[in-house]
Design a protein that fits this description.
This protein is α+β, with helices and mostly antiparallel strands. The chain folds into two domains: about 70 residues; about 120 residues, no CATH class. A six-stranded antiparallel sheet has the order 3-2-1-4-5-6. Helix 1 packs parallel to helix 3.
């Protein structure tokens, strides 16, 4: 690659960095946008004489990546592969920054083997109910079950909102994503029926399907 080609590439990445940085202001939930803004910004700063353009993109990328992290993990969904099939009670990845469920930590529930085949159902117990973004009303619904499975949705699901900790739920495996990168099986869809309220809903186990942000 010639010197001129390197300069043109650096300019292009600098412009891409500031564009992605601006996009991260509005799409901060998609952490990949902020990450790319940071990467392109660093390359632009190293090889482009004009430091302002990549500098702004880098700064915006860092700011809104930190905003995303402050709302929880970069992706709150936990791939099913991290949950041991031999020990469904084990919590491999903490879902809260304090590594526990404060309001339910003294409760114990019967834990059954979660469904692992499409069409299979299993009774479980509600362990925690929250919003998709911690403490942000209207950001969607989030529910965790005693067997460590979870459902999360950008929409507010009334059935989840009406559930309470300790409710028995009949949980069925609806679909499993295909053509996923190795180790990334986010996007498993479950249907749930609250035995107490009779309400039912359907949602996947993470914010994004496999291969997403």
């Amino acid at each position: 690659m010639t010197t001129d080609q390197k300069k043109n590439l650096a300019k292009g990445l600098s412009v891409a960095s500031i564009c992605l940085g601006i996009a991260s202001i509005f799409l901060w939930e998609f952490s990949i946008i902020s990450i790319l803004a940071i990467i392109f910004g660093i390359v632009g700063l190293l090889f482009n004489k004009n430091k302002w353009t990549p500098g702004i993109g880098l700064t915006l990328g860092i700011i809104f990546l930190l905003v995303r992290i402050s709302q929880g993990h970069i992706d709150r969904g936990i791939p099913a592969s991290v949950i041991s099939n031999n020990n469904p009670q084990a919590i491999v990845t903490p879902l809260r920054q304090n590594n526990s469920f404060p309001s339910q930590q003294n409760n114990t529930y019967e834990v059954n083997q979660p469904p692992d085949k499409v069409g299979q159902c299993q009774e479980t117990t509600v362990a925690e109910i929250s919003t998709r973004l911690d403490g942000v009303a209207g950001s969607g619904s989030y529910i965790i079950y005693a067997d460590n499975l979870q459902q999360i949705s950008y929409d507010t699901i009334q059935g989840i909102e009406d559930s309470i900790v300790g409710d028995k739920v009949n949980l069925c495996l609806v679909s499993v994503p295909t053509n996923c990168p190795p180790g990334d099986d986010r996007g498993i869809v479950y249907s749930a029926t609250n035995i107490r309220t009779g309400e039912n809903w359907e949602a996947q186990d993470s914010e994004h399907s496999c291969g997403g942000a």
